[in-house]
Amino acid sequence: MQDMKTEAEQYAAARIEAAHLKVEHPMQPVWSAVDDYFGTLLAPSDEALDAALAANTQAGLPSIDVSQLQGKFLSVLVHLTQARRILEIGTLGGYSTIWMARALPEGGRIVTLEFNPKHADVARQNLKNAGLLDCVDLRLGRALDSLPALASSGICPFDLIFIDADKRNNPQYLEWALELSRPGTTIIVDNVVRDGKVIDAESDDPDIQGTRRMTKMLAAEPRLTATALQNVGAKGYDGFVLAVVLR
Asked: Which whole-number Å values give the CA distances from 67 to 43, 233, 234, in the listed order?
């Protein structure tokens, strides 16, 4: 457990350092203001959501939660797909989990996987404060260790799968998403644009290379139809993949 925690803390520290080194785009104030405008009207925050973000900050978690509007987008997708069984790879502090869990129909359930014990503790408390622990199964450990257990647990297939963990392992996460899905399952992969760096074929960043390998897999996989969308907003410049399992 100590080794796991050490590796997780190193990963979080690297993400924080990268955020500090990031140069703000001159349009960032406008992007953030537009997010505030639409967020206030279409995705208003509340006590539980605000408390979750505050708890994440107080605990020193990296500030890489989905934005307010992105959380509402996930919520809308749950309603759109009428998902009853959701898999989330990468819990962080549970902010995105809260958005999706609130959209579940009665009897629905989310399985969310988190590598870092500290993050999992914070997320569990946030979910408890939001009154959602009964519909969330939070599993601690490496996702690539937890996913095989899910395949034999009888929980799957999942209706909606949200991948938002370490990007270097995106190819393996996509393989498991297919294994744990059914025709019609929706798969979302977050943070695929990487400030535009995804187009750098010579990048030595394992997250860039992992995203590029996953994208090639998407293009070649006959069981999937997929697209990628760039977006700007309060979180800067990034994007996501949206895919549907065909067979």
From this structure: 10, 8, 7
Closest-CA residue to 180 (of 213, 143, 131)? 143
Q: Is the pLDDT of residue 15 over 90?
A: no
Q: Which CATH architecture has domain 2-245?
A: 3-Layer(aba) Sandwich (3.40)
The residue extents of the domains of the chain are 2-245
Encode pLDDT of 181-194 as tens digits: 999 999 999 999 99
CA dist 91 and 239 (Å) reads 19
CB 186 within 8 A of CB 112: no
- Residue among 6, 21, 4 at smallest CA distance from 205: 21
Distance CA 169, CA 174 (A): 9
**Residue from 114, 120, 107, 9 nearest 56 by CA:** 120
- Distance in angstroms (rounded) separating the CA atoms of residues 149 and 110: 15
From edge to edge, which strands make up the β-sheet containing 160-163? 136-140, 109-114, 85-89, 160-163, 186-190, 236-245, 224-233
What span, in angstroms and rounded, lies between the C-alpha atoms of 59 and 23? Answer: 25
Q: How many residues does the chain have?
A: 247
